[in-house]
Amino acid sequence: MSYDDKKQKLLEKSEKLNEAIESVFKSDKDGLVLKPHHKIEVEELQKQSKTILGKIQKGEFEIAVIGQEDSGKSSLLNALIKTDIFPSNSGRTTYTSTKLISGKEDKAEVKLYTFNEFEDIFISRLEAIGVDEKLAKEKGFRNFSPNLNSYKNEKNNTDIKDLIEDAEETLNFRDEIIELLEEKGGETVSFDETKLKDVKEYITGTENDKSKPRATKEIVIYSSKLNAMPNSIIYDVPGFNSPTKLHKEQTAKMLKESDSIIFITDVSSPNLKGDELQTLSKGDDIYGVSLKDKVFVFGNKYDRANNEKEAEDNEKKFKKDVLEKMF
Question: What is the DSSP string of 25-88?
Answer without folding.
Answer: HHH-TT-SSS-HHHHHHHHHHHHHHHHHHHHHHHT-EEEEEEE-TTSSHHHHHHHHHTS--S--
